[in-house]
Write a structure and sequence with these properties.
Layout (H helix, E strand, L loop, with lengths): L1 H43 L2 H23 L3 H7 L7 H6 L2
Helix pairs in contact: 1-2
């Protein structure tokens, strides 16, 4: 009985790690896509679209950073080197 309980617990922990890793990876991909969209709108030059793209980028970045900083997802983020991303770093490259 104890072995079954330990096995179930290990499976649940493994599922948590896989789901969290996948979520963080997806968020990083969303950030990269938001950067591409923002650059596209900046090249087009429409201030309204640029502003909306910046708002979307900041929202995606905020969600990602919250996952990286908050327990329990912070454990997975630290294990697999998902760094906190700073808005200032992105703004300097534009």
């Amino acid at each position: 009985m104890l072995m079954k309980l330990v096995f179930v617990l290990l499976v649940l922990v493994a599922i948590f790690f896989l789901v969290t890793y996948n979520s963080l990876t997806n968020d990083k991909n969303r950030i990269e896509l938001a950067e591409v969209e923002l650059r596209k709108y900046e090249e087009a030059g429409d201030p309204k679209d640029i502003d909306n793209a910046k708002k979307y980028y900041n929202a995606v970045l905020r969600d990602y950073n919250n996952k990286v900083e908050k327990f329990p997802t912070s454990i997975v983020a630290n294990m697999f080197n998902f760094p906190k991303m700073h808005i200032e770093e992105f703004d300097e490259g534009l």
